[in-house]
Inverse folding.
């Protein structure tokens, strides 16, 4: 074999070795990129829940925390229920401990607007850092399994005949969301919304106990809680407040299709302590954005019947300001504000 041929073969061998080496480096770099993309966006989130177990805030924080952790987006999640003052105790606590609570997100929803307007507590969403609205949940009306009522129309007939004979349980204070949704529904049915006999309980679990004990005829709650209660065989869902039926509860009629023109969706989202940095806000927003693309989120979303309602950062603040105006007008119309 000539010298030129041997050199040619050596060149081919070196070329192949180089290609293999470069391929190995590319695979290694791809592995590093993959690992980096799968690394947690946030190391730790402590979810502060301003109500007791069994309510919408509780299921939202724990469901979203579960999805974030299972998807590997958050390394460690923890939860703390802090009832009191219609949610005001948790807000005051988050404000007081702001410097030590940079990894804390408090779940809340429409009631933070309603209760501020009603002076249930002196704070408002402006005293915290709005991070993002994350989900929407419709209202629902449920009765115990042994209830004689099998349709919402039957409950309406009873209410129109004698409002006091239809005590309505809710897991929030008088004049707050569960109360308002019930008032809207009975008003749409031709009743006087100011005559609703509303029984206020601290969180959904206690409201459910009031329903099962017979203290209340019907429970006003979120559709996600209602689905979970119905799955446990404890209640029947008579109606929900969406524009159309939910895929998670396809047999439950809307108020609109029953002839009552009332629609309501309750947002739920998260707030950081006051003074949270722009960098931290952006990191939390990226965390939620990543969550929506995961199978873990889709499983949790289907379980509770939630709809995606993502409003991050400044869009969330603008939305809150708009809702404050809208809810204030509604509360005046229904007689809850002067």
């Amino acid at each position: 074999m000539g010298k030129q041929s041997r050199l040619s073969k050596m060149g081919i061998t070196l070329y192949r070795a180089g290609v293999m080496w470069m391929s190995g480096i590319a695979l290694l770099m791809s592995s590093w990129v993959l690992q980096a993309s799968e690394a947690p966006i946030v190391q730790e989130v402590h979810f502060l829940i301003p109500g007791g177990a069994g309510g919408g805030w509780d299921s939202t924080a724990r469901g979203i925390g579960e999805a974030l952790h299972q998807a590997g987006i958050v390394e460690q999640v923890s939860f703390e229920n802090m009832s009191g003052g219609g949610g005001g105790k948790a807000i005051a606590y988050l404000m007081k401990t702001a410097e030590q609570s940079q990894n804390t997100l408090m779940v809340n929803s429409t009631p933070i607007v309603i209760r501020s307007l009603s002076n249930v507590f002196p704070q408002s969403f402006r005293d915290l850092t709005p991070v993002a609205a994350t989900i929407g949940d419709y209202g629902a009306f449920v009765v115990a399994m042994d209830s004689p009522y099998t349709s919402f129309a039957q409950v309406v007939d009873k209410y129109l005949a004698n409002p006091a004979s239809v005590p309505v349980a809710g897991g929030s204070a008088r004049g707050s969301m569960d109360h308002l949704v019930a008032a809207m529904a009975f008003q749409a049915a031709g009743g006087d919304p100011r005559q609703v006999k509303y029984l206020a309980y601290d969180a959904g679990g206690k409201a459910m106990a009031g329903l099962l004990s017979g203290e209340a005829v019907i429970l006003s709650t979120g559709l996600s809680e209602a689905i979970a209660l119905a799955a446990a065989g404890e209640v029947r869902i008579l109606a929900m407040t969406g524009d159309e039926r939910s895929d998670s509860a396809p047999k439950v009629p809307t108020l609109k299709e029953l002839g009552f023109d009332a629609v309501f969706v309750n947002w739920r989202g998260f707030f950081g302590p006051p003074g949270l940095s722009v960098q931290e806000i952006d990191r939390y927003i990226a965390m939620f954005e990543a969550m929506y693309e995961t199978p873990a989120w889709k499983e949790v979303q289907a379980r509770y019947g939630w709809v995606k309602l993502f409003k991050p950062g400044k869009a969330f603040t603008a939305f809150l300001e708009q809702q404050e105006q809208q809810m204030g007008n509604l509360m005046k119309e229904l007689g809850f504000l002067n």
